[in-house]
Amino acid sequence: MDLIYAYRVPRKRRKPIPKQAGFSLPELIVVLAGLGILASLAIPNFIKYLQFAQIDEAKSLLNSAAAECLQLRRSDPMKWSEAQPEALKARTLPGSYQYKGNLKTCSEIEIYDPSSEDTLFPMLKFTIFENGRVLKESQFYNPDSEEDCKSWGNCGGSPSAKYLKQCFKDKTDCEIKAGSELKLAKDGPISSKGWSGNCTWPQSQCGCTRDLWACDGRLYDSQTEYETCRNLKLDKECKDHLKKLSESDYSGFDSIGACNSETWWWKGKEVPSREAVCTEEAVEMALTGNKGPIAFKVGTGCEAKWSCNSEIQNSEADYLAKCPTPPPQQTPPPPPCKMWFRGNCLIPG
């Protein structure tokens, strides 16, 4: 009998399970202390960067408001300065920013942070003048926000901001004064002056010194342009005036002078001189059967003329030769009277 040997497969050894271990208390204290130190360094910087982002957001908000105000100025030039931009109505101010007083209209808007004297948020402000110029101003209270202040414009109440603000105000006052006089001024030079030069920094030569002329409800700072406007206006006024005289059958002298010339008219037609009016009037009087000296009505100042048999006579001798005056009839004397009483004969003679 053969022997059968069974082969046993050896079992795999299991790896020993290591003992579980944790951090010791001192190790945890060290880790937490390290995290606290890192947090104390990172969180303030994170907050500062967040505030810088809020400053940029405030700048963007004010720029949007300024752009909207300029659009309002073009569409509603009478009330734009009193309007509040929709950009400010739709959003709250970022960070700790607040409005300064009631400066929330297009004419002037200022925001600031009243929370502390060394706030990181700089004061931001813009002013829009009547002529459409925008002036930005800023003031910083923390050295870290100096760059934000300078990037906005006129940082720290600079002399340039003070000068430009006063210059724009003077220019606006100058233009308002000239515009007010224009409403009552006739065509020609006016007493008010126009603004000369530009409000720029460094300070430039400018002021309310330029001569102005009014024509057809507009102001001109060039005499040549004024004369061009005046000539065009006279042409139109002259044409309208001549049409009116023609349609009204006017007779006489054109005393209005809309055409800048002296003209005489007869029955809606222009004639060359006063003598022509006299001739036309004399002919009309003669044709109506007028006899004797002609009494001129239209051509006042005409030379004396006479009318006889529908003809005009230039002298009294010619008139008498054409139309001799019959001798006057002699009235017979009254009969003799012995007694008169109040022009009546009581007792005939």
Jot down its keywords.
349 residues; alpha+beta; 7 helices
Give a short synopsis of this structure.
The protein is of the alpha+beta class and 349 residues long. The chain is built from 7 helices and 17 strands.
| Coarse structural class | alpha+beta
Biggest sheet layout: 4 strands, antiparallel
Shape: rod-shaped
Percent of sequence in beta strands: 15-25%
Helix-strand sequence: HHEEEEHHEEEEEHEEEHEEEHEE
Structure in words:
This protein is an alpha+beta fold and 349 residues long. Among the domains are: 43-157; 170-221, no CATH class; 272-322, no CATH class. The chain is 38% helix and 19% strand. The chain has seven helices and 17 strands. The chain has helices spanning 25-75, 86-90, 146-152, 159-182, 223-247, 274-287, 316-322; strands spanning 98-105, 108-112, 123-128, 134-139, 188-189, 194-196, 207-210, 213-215, 218-220, 252-253, 264-266, 269-271, 292-293, 306-308, 311-313, 337-341, 344-348. The strands form six sheets. A four-stranded antiparallel β-sheet has the order 1-2-3-4, with helices on both faces. The termini are far apart.
